[in-house]
Amino acid sequence: MSALSLCLNKRASFISILSIALFLNSMAYAKPDLQPLGANIADQGSKYYQFQIHHFQSADQQRHYKVWLGIPKHINKNKALPAIFMLDGNSVMARLDESLLKKQAEQDSPVLVVIGYESNLPFESASRSVDYTPTDESGLISADPRNPERMAGGSQQYRALMFKEIMPWVNTQVKLDPQRTALWGHSYGGLFVLDTLLHSDQFSHYFSASPSLTWADRRILNAVEKVKAEQVNAKKLWVMEGDFVPKAEQPISPNADRDMIKNNRQLVLDLASKGVDAKLMLYPHLSHGAVFQASLMDVLNNRLF
User: Fold this and answer.
1) Which of 58, 91, 109, 187 is catalytic?
2) Residue in 186, 212, 288, 295 annotated catalytic
3) Pairing of strands 176-186, 205-209
4) Catalytic (active site) residue 2
5) 87-146: pLDDT as tens digits
6) pTM of whole model > 0.85?
C-alpha cells in the first residue's frame, strides 16, 4: 500500500469516527420534531383496518382530544380482540403505515386506540404536561415543577376521561379482550402508564417507555415506594429504556437523567417485590427520544402481550 493510500485510509477512518461521535453527541439531547404533520393512514385509507375518529374534551374544556380507533376489517365480530391504547396519538398515527397494519392483520389483529389532540403537531407539549403527569397530595393541577410556564398533575382527570368516556365509546364499536388490553406511553406518557398501574385495573399490560422518573422530585418513584402490594399484585409491566447515557459535558434531555438505568432497575425491583410481573427492556445505543419509535414498534410487531 502506498503512503498516499495509507494516508487517505487513515483520514477516511478519522472522518468516520468523527461522524459517529457527532451523531452520538446529537443523540444526547435531540428536541422532538414539532413540524406540522401531513395526512396519516386513517386519512389515506387501509386495506386491513377501518379507522373511526371521535372527539373529546377535558372536564375544564381547556384541552381537546382526537381519538383514532382502528378496527381490523377481517375479524369475527363475536370474538373479543386484544387492544393497544397509545398516548401521544398524533405522533403515533404518523408512524403507522400500510405495511405495519398488514403485519398486524397477519397476527391476531389488535384493536388500535390512538389518543391524541386536536392538533396538526406531533406533540402537544403544554397539554401532555397536564394530562400525563401525576398529581401531588392535593390532587390539583398546578405549575409543572420542571417548567413553571406549564401546568401539570392532571393524570387523575385524564384517566377519568379515558375510563368514563373514551373506553365506553370504544366498547360500543368493538368487543375487547380484558385479558389482553395494553397501555403504552413514552416520557411523560411513560409516567402516566406507571401512575395508571398504581391506581387502576383497567389494563392487563402496561408499557412504560423511557419514563421521566426524576420529574417533580421523583414523585412517581415515591408513589411506588408507598403503594400497597394488593393494589399492584400480578399486574404486568414492561419498562423500556435506551442505554445511551451522555457524557458529563454533553447536554441531556430534561425528561431524562444520567442515572436513568439505575432508577429504572430500582423501579422494576420495587414493583416486583410487591408482586408485579415487571421487566426491564434496554435498547442499545438509543437515546430518550429514540425509544419512542423502538418501543412502539416492539409492542405492535413483537406482541409483548
Assistant:
1) 187
2) 288
3) parallel
4) no
5) 999 999 999 999 999 999 988 899 999 999 999 999 999 999 999 999 998 889 999 998
6) yes
